[in-house]
């Protein structure tokens, strides 16, 4: 039974991490890059505004950080919950 | 040495390199085709996956689409990279744990239904064939340019080369060939961009140069905005299209990326579940190297072209026909004219070529004043921009040859990979797995070759009258993958509730509505002039056919959910299968399915 509880805890920790990561994923691309761009229009970046930078480069950089962060965090979680591949 | 010989030399040398590596790597290991990725370091695997993934759409087409539209086409940049986040978080580790080799096998097992497997194969075929059309367009343009012939003949020659390349087969399986292709591709993309960035901004890193300043101290993008608005075009950095459409388009590309079988397959064969997570990250690192440079290539090329056509802006004189024909700085225009993808016409007979937006009221007034009779740069195919870019910037001949080799590497590797995926889906999954299980190995191989040839004939026929520029055609393929494959995979992992009937109904609903929407706008089976709507005036508000994949995916999720609720619950052993897929422990090496 304890095995199963631990698996459930592992899975809900994973789902929580995925939800947080996807919130950031959506915020930088759909948010800063598209929908919220008018709000960031006041911040100038090289001849244009911050929203343009997020749409063309910033979101890609954040995506990279997110994937590596998730991989690092999950590998740690695997060990903590004893479900890693040994 | 003339440019033609130089191009031939670069293309020939790069091909010799790939074949050489294929032979060398083959002699070293006899491991089966699918196992190529196993035992390969995640970094190497990431590089190979990046080469597999970046096709004619990324290399040849994308920067041109960004150049002529500006901000609105940022969707390509965010969409084709953001999908890797979905892949790494929602699919890759679990599919690796599942331990089979193909996407349709997972769907067949998880939804305990051979119908589900067959529907998955059909979805996969529809998306892959659409994808190949886009690749063939790119191949045609690249061959047309470097052999200096019409793009039509380029397409036919390219089709023969792709076919030979795909039949040679083993190449695709050899990871190190793809590593070499990646190196050729990224060098070819970056070197001209570095030169041009130095010329325009003095910054050797194009991604930084894009936000840098020109010699006069004016920011590059501000200068570009000023120049394009002077010609009557929309401001480069401003948003013009509908926000809803841009969000849906970006989302379709993202979901589609995570639903493309030939990309997902790469993560089945890494040694461990944790490697599947890292590998997605490394793949994106190598993709980002090109994607961070692409917007700089687009903006800088747009600036160079505008300045070549109007050396002193519209208040000065436009470039003369004589100069285009004699000045070496304009020699690229004559070479590209031969492909039929670039054209100009001195409509008002003043010996000059006025390039401007003749739909713009201000420019129409200016034209009336100066006796211009419409835009005289009559044809500029967006897909030629990246290949023509080094010539436009007057870079040395070897850079031009290198770009030709890079473009072909991108288009050929993906086109051949897709043909292999199509042929194995038809012969292995559809014929052997479903229709004629007793088929001999020999006839399976024959079926694979025949389906490959059939796919390429279809792709060439449709590639002659493509539904859009290469990257747009490819975007349609992503929409189809987004609407059909991705939701089924995700629900298969994250919900035990979705059953066999629900998954089949969901996939079919998603595929059919998306296909219908695309055909209504792009013509039935992409046959020109059979469409009832256009993307300028779409059926549903601002939603273009390229953006519909996200809606198709939502339909898929909803239908699967409701149908599952009304039908029999998932059996216990399938719930156990889902539980085991969710935890990494106990992952063996991937095994060949039945």
UniProtKB/TrEMBL annotation, chain A:
Q: What's the superkingdom here?
A: Bacteria
Q: Report the coiled-coil segments.
A: none
Which InterPro entries is this protein grouped with?
A: Na_symporter_ssu (IPR019886)
- Limits of the Sodium symporter small subunit domain: 8-84
Question: Transmembrane segments in this chain: where?
Answer: 17-40, 52-72
Which keywords belong to this entry? Membrane, Transmembrane, Transmembrane helix
Q: Where is the signal peptide?
A: none
- A Pfam family of the record is DUF4212
Quote the protein name from its UniProt record. Answer: DUF4212 domain-containing protein
* Lineage, uppermost ranks: Bacteria, Pseudomonadati, Pseudomonadota, Alphaproteobacteria, Rhodobacterales
Automatic annotation (TrEMBL), chain B:
**Compartments (UniProt record):** Membrane
What membrane topology term does the record carry?
Answer: Multi-pass membrane protein
Specify whether Cell membrane is a keyword of the entry: yes
Q: Which residues form a coiled coil?
A: none
Where is it predominantly found?
membrane
Give the keywords, sorted: Cell membrane, Ion transport, Membrane, Sodium, Sodium transport, Symport, Transmembrane, Transmembrane helix, Transport
Q: Which residues cross the membrane?
A: 6-25, 77-95, 116-134, 146-167, 179-200, 246-268, 280-301, 398-426, 446-464, 470-494, 501-520, 540-563
The entry assigns this protein to a family as follows:
Belongs to the sodium:solute symporter (SSF) (TC 2.A.21) family.
What is this protein's name? Cation acetate symporter
**Species this chain originates from:** Roseobacter sinensis
């Amino acid at each position: 039974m304890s095995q199963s509880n631990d698996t459930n805890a592992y899975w809900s920790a994973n789902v929580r991490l995925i939800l947080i990561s996807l919130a950031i994923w959506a915020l930088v691309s759909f948010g800063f890059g598209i929908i919220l761009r008018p709000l960031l229009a006041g911040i100038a970046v090289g001849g244009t505004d911050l929203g343009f930078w997020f749409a063309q480069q910033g979101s890609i950089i954040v995506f990279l950080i997110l994937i590596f962060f998730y991989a690092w965090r999950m590998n740690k979680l695997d060990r903590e919950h004893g479900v890693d591949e040994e | 040495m003339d440019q033609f010989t130089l191009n031939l030399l670069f293309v020939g040398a790069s091909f010799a390199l790939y074949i050489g590596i294929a032979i060398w790597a083959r002699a070293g290991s006899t491991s089966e085709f699918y196992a190529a990725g196993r035992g390969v370091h995640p970094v190497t695997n990431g590089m190979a996956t990046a080469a597999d993934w970046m096709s004619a759409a990324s290399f040849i087409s994308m920067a041109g689409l960004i150049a002529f539209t500006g901000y609105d086409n940022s969707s390509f940049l965010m969409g084709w990279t953001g999908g890797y986040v979905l892949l790494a978080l929602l699919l890759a580790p679990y599919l690796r744990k599942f331990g089979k080799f193909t996407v349709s096998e997972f769907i067949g097992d998880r939804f305990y239904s051979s119908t589900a497997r067959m529907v998955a194969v059909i979805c996969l075929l529809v998306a892959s064939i659409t994808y190949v059309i886009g690749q063939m367009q790119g191949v045609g343009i690249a061959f047309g340019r470097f052999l200096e012939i019409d793009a039509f003949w380029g397409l036919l020659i390219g089709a023969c080369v792709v076919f030979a390349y795909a039949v040679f087969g083993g190449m695709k399986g050899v990871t190190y060939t793809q590593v070499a292709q990646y190196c050729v591709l990224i060098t070819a993309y970056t070197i001209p961009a570095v030169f041009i960035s130095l010329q325009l901004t003095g910054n050797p890193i194009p991604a930084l140069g894009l936000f840098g300043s020109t010699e006069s101290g004016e920011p590059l993008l501000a200068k570009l905005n000023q120049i394009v608005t002077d010609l009557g075009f929309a401001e480069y950095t401003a948003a013009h299209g509908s926000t809803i459409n841009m969000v849906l388009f970006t989302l379709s590309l993202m979901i589609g990326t995570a639903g493309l079988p030939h990309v997902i397959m790469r993560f089945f064969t890494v040694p461990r579940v944790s490697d599947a997570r890292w590998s997605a990250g490394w793949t994106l690192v190598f993709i980002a190297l090109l994607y961070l440079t692409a917007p700089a290539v687009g903006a800088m090329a747009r600036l160079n072209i505008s300045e070549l056509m109007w050396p002193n802006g519209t208040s000065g004189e436009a470039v003369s026909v004589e100069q285009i024909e004699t000045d070496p700085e304009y020699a690229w225009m004559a070479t590209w004219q031969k492909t039929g993808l670039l054209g100009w016409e001195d409509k008002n007979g003043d010996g000059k070529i006025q390039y401007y937006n003749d739909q713009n009221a201000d420019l129409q007034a200016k034209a009336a004043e100066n006796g211009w009779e419409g835009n005289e740069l009559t044809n500029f195919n967006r897909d030629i921009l990246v290949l023509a870019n080094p010539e436009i910037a007057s870079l040395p001949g070897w850079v031009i040859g290198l770009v030709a080799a890079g473009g072909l590497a991108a288009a050929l590797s993906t086109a051949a990979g897709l043909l292999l995926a199509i042929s194995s889906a038809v012969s292995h999954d559809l014929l052997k797995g479903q229709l004629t299980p007793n088929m001999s190995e020999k006839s399976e191989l024959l079926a694979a070759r025949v389906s490959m040839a059939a796919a390429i004939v279809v792709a060439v026929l449709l590639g002659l009258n493509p539904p859009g520029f290469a990257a747009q055609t490819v975007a349609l393929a992503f929409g189809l993958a987004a609407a059909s494959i991705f939701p089924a995979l995700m629900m298969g992992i994250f919900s035990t509730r979705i059953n066999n009937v629900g998954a089949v109904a969901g996939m079919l609903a998603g595929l059919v509505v998306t296909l219908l929407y695309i055909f209504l706008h792009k013509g039935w089976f992409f046959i020109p002039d059979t469409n009832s709507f256009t993307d300028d005036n779409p059926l549903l508000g601002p939603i273009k056919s390229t953006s519909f994949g996200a809606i198709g995916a939502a339909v898929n999720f909803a239908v699967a959910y409701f149908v599952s609720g009304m039908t029999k619950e998932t059996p216990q052993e399938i719930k156990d299968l889902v539980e085991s897929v969710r935890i990494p422990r106990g992952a063996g090496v991937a095994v060949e399915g039945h």
